[in-house]
Design goal:
It is built from 8 helices and 11 strands. It has an 8-stranded mixed beta sheet. Strands 1-2-3 form a 3-stranded antiparallel beta sheet, covered by helices on one side. The longest helix has 14 residues. Helices cover 23% and strands 25% of the residues. By secondary structure, it is an alpha/beta fold. It holds the Pfam family Aminotran_4. One of its GO terms (molecular function) is catalytic activity.
């Protein structure tokens, strides 16, 4: 796997209903001072800045020096219809050229973008299936930062029988020490093991030293006190265990660990 990607990337949701949903929230509960339709926009800009610095792309760093308002105005140019929600994929190459792919995305309950909702009868019946990769992945700059070099994630999904982006399933990527790094397209959260103080969050997410990506929703969940960081061993996860997943397009999603072999690729 090459250590230099073609693009650094970040994927996020554009939703015209988001600013209205944020109106009643105090400023400290959501990190975008613009209250823009771009979900967690400051965190996506920070993620791209960190990647450009890591790969030593000065032109990309220069492009990303613009302030948040300018960045939002730049993204506005790529929205085909500002009355509809979109899945955006921001790509920046080493020359600082930025392109944005916009694809339609389905309407969702916007409360799921803010923090995990308490389970309901309907949500309990349809959690995502969460598999553990049968092979290990070696941490590198390409797992620490989100880039177009995603062969290891694609291979992990195929090994688990996930063949479609629409499949409500995820696979957890594991490092050679047996630690969960992250999901192929999400950040995972698990119930805390062992003794817990009353002030400790009930949920934990993998530490970055395990080799995963500092995702935008991960940063949001940590900042809001929903979870803490911890080393999570794949061997400690149980079949049927409930968990949470999150990413910058779908927000927070309920999941359930599946350790038995998959028999279909629905």
């Amino acid at each position: 796997m090459s250590s230099i990607p073609r693009h650094i990337i970040s994927s996020l949701r554009y939703d015209p209903s988001l600013p209205h949903s944020l109106q009643s929230l105090p400023p400290t509960s959501y990190p975008d001072p613009l209250r823009s339709p771009y979900y967690l926009l400051p965190y996506h800009q920070d993620r791209l800045r960190d990647a450009a610095k890591c790969f030593q792309w000065p032109e990309a760093q220069h492009f990303l020096q613009q302030d948040l308002t300018q960045f939002a105005q730049f993204l506005d140019k790529f929205i085909p219809d500002n009355t509809q929600p979109w899945r955006l994929r921001i790509l920046i190459d080493r020359s600082g050229t930025c392109t944005v792919e916009a694809n339609p995305t389905t309407a969702i309950d916007l409360r799921t973008l803010l923090l995990p909702l308490p389970p309901t009868h309907d949500s309990q019946s349809n959690p995502w299936r969460v598999y553990i990769d049968s092979e290990t992945t070696t941490p590198s700059a390409l797992t620490t930062h989100k880039t177009t070099a995603r062969d290891c994630y694609t291979a992990a999904r195929l090994r688990s029988g996930i063949v479609s982006p629409q499949d409500p399933a995820e696979v957890l990527v594991v490092n050679p020490s047996g630690e969960i790094m992250e999901g192929s397209i999400t950040t995972p959260y698990f119930q805390r093991r062992g003794r817990r103080q009353d002030t400790d969050p009930a949920w934990v997410t993998p530490v970055l030293t395990s080799g995963g990506n500092s995702g935008t929703t991960r940063r949001y969940a940590l900042g809001q006190g929903f979870c803490a960081e911890d080393i999570i061993l794949a061997s400690d996860l149980a079949d049927g265990e409930e968990c949470w997943l999150s990413n910058g397009v779908r927000g927070f999603i309920r999941g359930q660990v599946v350790l038995s072999a998959r028999t279909s690729t629905s």
